[in-house]
């Protein structure tokens, strides 16, 4: 059995001692903050005086992974010492303690304790600290909540308030983040809401008022206290008038300090018109201090002695427990846990019922919720925590089985009838707050509530006095455990209903001092015995209750025979008539009666006295009718012994004496007859009294039955209230479930263990054909809209293995998919009661998955295409390098021949031919690259004119015949007799035919043949080039029209090429609105290329271009940073008859232009220091050069480059490499200069 985990190590006696010294104890201020709290803390501490006499503990949410400089920052804002909290550090006044990172902080017996930091759960450090501060410091705890997000601190503030502490919160408008202070204020437990910098002044004022209460008269204080309690009684219905005066005044002074009032009367007047303050006072008076397994000792006695005895004796009937003043329910749950644990040891444990009552409705609501902060971890063992509690975020809730054992209801132990037939009553630490008379009454009530042999548990500071021990026997004196005795005594059960409050409370007196009380008693005894007249107290029947006076024996002498306490029996015979008459008249008239000058002879002396009988008022302790009989003695007359009388006188005296004796004898006979009559009456009265006692006994039995019935009725009302509350909760829960079912789009079916439908959501009708009346029928009775053959077996599997099952199903008649998921249905008691089958519509998810797969596939294809393009790019660069280097070798060799051969030899001419051919090859290579780029960017421009495709094909074939002859390939040309007219650019179409013929020549081995044919097949002209060459793999054909693609990818580059030919041809043909196709039977089967172009009607006439005029010499300036290129161009132009000057950079060129005023400027774009665009703009600003022809010579050949050249001021744009003919053509297109230029170049 796990050992109970006590909340505190201090006993109740120590707590009582702490409370007695609360005026001397230190006020500890716990300050909680989070986001925005640093600024609020600095403002707070700047206003704290260095001698406030308070201690401050700062709990701020800090990162557990980094060192904190919070203490250093706060130290700069205050004169108080600021230090990090450490384990076991005693809290001192006028100090500030700051929580360290990665640790929690609590208070135990005035010292700080560090607790492990929980990285997994919510970090509610402020709640934990304030709760521990409240439990440890009670009335000396102060809780302050500053800026922060979330609700941390709200539960801690409530704990401080419940334990009698003071509470403050930062005003919402003053906090940077108001969530934390707003949550604290929402609890209704915050006393003052102030800006951060105003809270210290309120705290200092609070401390000062605790130390110095203003003087107030005892009478004024008593009157104010009476008024205050009457107001609380009228407002709340609870009578606190019999609480101990010191307790009430202590709570009253706390509220007076909070409201700033100086006297009890002023505070009582405030309560008359302030309902909120009345509620605050009532909450303070209901002292809610409790915890789980509070104090180890009593629970050990219960566990080892009491509970085994009750479980053994009440096995059949069940065990009933009552916890009066249960507060928030911890003690009730603790007792239930103990009984559950010991009951587990029995084969058939009895039923347990715990009745927990209190007058505080808010505390009962908290008890019913059964939800407690993480402080419960320190009060309950780990084993009990796992079994009886469920963790929910930062708190713990009692399990449903434990909750069902406890019934919580509002009940006033003093006002309401007690419960009955209880086996154990735990009433700990309630009696210490009550006056002795009320304590005695409560003890009698608890005796009545217990069954024979029932147990009573009191607090450590509470004890049963000797008189009350008639009702209880001691089981354990140390732990205050008692057992009910069977005595013939009935408690004075208080009637239900509200009673009027007493008019005044007894003011404190010095009668409590033992020394003073002893002196008073002794003095009173001496006065009564020596100086008071002889007196007796008798009841209405004359029975003596009390007597005093040393001379009482003169009137009540002892007599032989059986002793008697009846006044008529023990009084002197001479006094009986007067005594009887006086008692009778005093009882009848209800006022004092005096019989004067009564004479009695005693011890030879005639004593004269007055007999006074005074009725006594009844008291609560002795309600019988009593009378005080006082014998007031007058001056006595002694019997004379003088001179003898004469005979007549003596005879007369004797006669009178005989007459008196005779009269006295007759009177005595009459008295005796009267006594006999009285005795007969007494006998009758005794019989009547016996009958009355029987009737009283019967009335008591009836009253007992009525009280038991009333107690049973109270229990029934309690059970009914609990049941109604549960019904309300169930109705609310049912409404929530219905709304959830209506609003959720998830089809869900609840099955019992026999696969019968218990409940289903409306969305389930989309999967099964269900109606509201189908609840209770087996699921197999219904047709599903999907393939449900395996559903019964899957349900059985879930019930057997308790493991979830899920699979995807599709509706037969709709294109919808669902994820069917089966889970075991677990009750709150963890019992498997069936299966929950849910169908989650994943149609959109499936479609999204399909779209995602398509996107992934497209991306993979794109990535593959990019990889292919990248591979082709690498291949192209390798091929381009090869193709650019190949012509350089014959050019270099030819240059070597030119250097060593004479001008008239054939070798020189051959070298010139080779250089020209290779340069032409390089130019075509660059042109192909440029054309491919233009086509790809859509920038290729064509000049469409009517042309004869037949004539163009013939000329192009003749131009390339040399290539065929060189390769020993036969070229056959088959053209129609009539012209074939198309609209197109002659240069570009010649490029198309030439490229196709070049490919045929390259890929046809020697001895093969190529046939070029043309025909007009309206509406298109069909051009065919068929060879007998190496052929193409059909799989490769689609790729041949892509840039940089070639059928031959080996290192054998004898055939050369960049793989741009067919791509370029395809772009040019499509630009002309035509199509191109390639076919091949495979490797070695030859290839055929077919080009189709739209036909047009024959034009009316064909313009013949005029013969070109010979070029006119011009004055030319060449600006080129490449010296070789500049010199070679100068020489070539001079050979054409032009005057040429050269500059190698922009500034030099501008100076030369100013000097020479050239007609034409050939300027490179990529010049150092100053590019060609800047040179053109500068020349255009020169007045004498505005008509100069500016021609750009550049390797930048994109359309955007041409646009930029025009914008800079160039008249023409020539792409390198260019020929002298190209330059001359550009010059010839320019208009002649407006005026002659300057001098010749140097």
UniProtKB/TrEMBL annotation:
One of its GO terms (biological process) is chemotaxis. One of its GO terms (cellular component) is cytoplasm. Keywords: Chemotaxis, Coiled coil, Hydrolase, Kinase, Methyltransferase, Phosphoprotein, S-adenosyl-L-methionine, Transferase. Residues 1221-1242 are annotated as: Disordered. InterPro entries: Bact_Chemotaxis_MeTrfase (IPR050903), CheB_C (IPR035909), CheR_C (IPR022642), CheR_MeTrfase (IPR000780), CheR_N (IPR022641), CheR_N_sf (IPR036804), CheY-like_superfamily (IPR011006), HATPase_C_sf (IPR036890). It comes from the Bacteria. Pfam families: CheB_methylest, CheR, CheR_N, HATPase_c, HisKA, PAS_10, Response_reg. It catalyses: L-glutamyl-[protein] + S-adenosyl-L-methionine = [protein]-L-glutamate 5-O-methyl ester + S-adenosyl-L-homocysteine; ATP + protein L-histidine = ADP + protein N-phospho-L-histidine. SUPFAM superfamilies: ATPase domain of HSP90 chaperone/DNA topoisomerase II/histidine kinase, Chemotaxis receptor methyltransferase CheR, N-terminal domain, CheY-like, Homodimeric domain of signal transducing histidine kinase, Methylesterase CheB, C-terminal domain, PYP-like sensor domain (PAS domain), S-adenosyl-L-methionine-dependent methyltransferases, Tropomyosin. Residues 879-1097 form the Histidine kinase domain. The keyword Nucleus does not apply. One of its GO terms (molecular function) is protein-glutamate O-methyltransferase activity. The modification 4-aspartylphosphate is found at residue 1164. Its EC number is 2.1.1.80, 3.1.1.61. Residues 1230-1242 have a biased composition (Pro residues). Residues 22-204 form the CheB-type methylesterase domain. The active site is at residues 34, 61, 152. Residues 232-485 form the CheR-type methyltransferase domain. Residues 1115-1231 form the Response regulatory domain. Residues 653-740, 842-872 form a coiled coil. The keyword Phosphoprotein applies. This is Signal transduction histidine kinase with CheB and CheR activity. It comes from Anaeromyxobacter dehalogenans (strain ATCC BAA-258 / DSM 21875 / 2CP-1).
